[in-house]
Amino acid sequence: MAACVIRRTFLSTVNKYNRKHAISVLNVDLNSRQTLNRTRLSCSLFNVQQKRLMSSRPEGKVLETVGVFEAPKHQGKYETGQLFLHSVFGYRGIVLFPWHARLYDRDVSPATESKPTEPPGAHRSKEVKGKTHTYYQVLIDTRDCPHISQRSQTEAVTFLANHDDSRALYAIPGLDYVSHEDILPYNSTDQVPIQHELFERFLKFNASKVPPFIPRDTLQAWQEKNHPWLELSDVHRETTENIRVTVIPFYMGMREAQNSHVYWWRYCIRLENMGEEVVQLRERHWRIFSLSGTLETVRGRGVVGREPVLSEEQPAFQYSSHVSLQAPSGHMWGSYRLERPNGTFFDVRIPPFSLESKKDDTPNGFLPGPFTSLA
């Protein structure tokens, strides 16, 4: 029995459909990771021989055929050209290449019962050993961006380009970093299954290969040229009261300003509610230490102008921000203040992470597009 991946372009559960067909399909709900997990093994009925739309009658919700579902890999890694659905945010994507990151997971560190309990939000100094974990550089299907915009920024790689405007910050939108366990692989006979301006510049269809989308020379050249700004090296994770915070820092480059050097980093953060209680993020509290000896404290409402609600239906929120130092390295840590339905608050730790610079030359001359100046 074949398992066909179906995605919904609007958010609802489809009604039962045409019971005479005996082909099972996977219904993927963009609105909820929990629904997605439940539907990995649940099936509706669909005739896979006909590629067509179907709708749940009274609500008129549309399902669209994507391809044939594949069993996720528990060992090894996915190859360039692998199509997938994101298991948390539900978007369609395709793997460009893997990164081998060091995952510092404070949730699996040795217990320290002999040490006194620290208050919520405190910066704990226990040593955490990193373990190798696979992440993937991926393209996001632009058709899915409107459906994930409230739970995840349309991710972009940002960097400082060697440009006439020394303050210009460039972004290539629709590029994300996805953990191995967040990939739900599928295959498709569509020669252009992902809509993104870089898809046909980086990949080409070859029916004799598995997966049938192989890298062009431009993809390898782009990866090599922009390696310092693309590379994912460290991932930090910690859970407080069922709220897991994952941080990935990226070095963006250096700028000269008023006879001094200013170093820039981007950091991507995902908050995930692992419990059943609905909570809302209200405040952020950052501490930023620079190798130059300065310690800055930042407090503010929400994150990126939002105060996201984390529930069973929408358990995750992901965003990116930037920070600069007048030194080649430093550290960041802090906490989020969340509110429960009864009006009480609690603090969630942001795991400490280092800001490390790389070679100071900045990308130049090879911007395959699309890119946007954020200056």
Which helices and strands occur, and which strands form pairs?
Elements: E1 3-8, E2 24-28, H1 33-39, E3 44-45, E4 54-56, E5 61-69, E6 83-86, E7 92-105, E8 131-140, H2 145-148, E9 156-160, E10 169-173, E11 175-179, E12 183-187, H3 199-202, E13 203-205, E14 213-215, H4 217-225, H5 227-230, E15 234-240, E16 243-257, E17 260-273, E18 279-290, E19 295-301, E20 309-310, E21 316-325, E22 329-339, E23 345-356, E24 372-373
Parallel strand pairs: 1-2, 7-15
Antiparallel strand pairs: 1-5, 2-3, 4-5, 5-12, 6-7, 6-12, 7-8, 8-11, 9-10, 10-24, 13-14, 15-16, 16-17, 17-21, 18-19, 18-20, 18-22, 22-23
Structural commentary:
The protein is built from five helices and 24 strands. It is mainly β. The protein has two domains: 3-69, no CATH class; 83-373, ApaG domain (Immunoglobulin-like). Strands 1, 2, 3, 4, 5, 6, 7, 8, 11, 12, 15, 16, 17 and 21 form a 14-stranded mixed sheet that branches. Strands 18, 19, 20, 22 and 23 form a five-stranded antiparallel sheet that branches. The longest helix has 9 residues, at 217-225.
Number of domains: 2
CATH topology (level 3) name of the largest domain: Immunoglobulin-like
**Shape designation:** globular
Q: What is the count of β-strands?
A: 24
Radius of gyration: 22 Å
Main sheet makeup: 14 strands, mixed
In the predicted model, the low-confidence regions spanning at least 5 consecutive residues are 1-59, 111-125, 361-375
Count of alpha/pi helices: 5
Strand content: over 45%
Structural class, please? Answer: mainly beta
> Architecture of the largest domain, according to CATH?
Sandwich
Distance between the termini: 53 Å
Mean of residue pLDDT values: 77
Tell me the series of helices and strands, N- to C-terminal: EEHEEEEEEHEEEEHEEHHEEEEEEEEEE
Highest CATH level, the class of the largest domain? Mainly Beta
CATH homologous superfamily heading of the largest domain: ApaG domain
User: Helical amount among residues, as a percent range?
Assistant: under 10%
Protein name: Polymerase delta-interacting protein 2
Subcellular location: Mitochondrion matrix; Nucleus
Keywords: DNA damage, DNA repair, Mitochondrion, Nucleus, Phosphoprotein, Transit peptide
Organism: Salmo trutta (Brown trout)
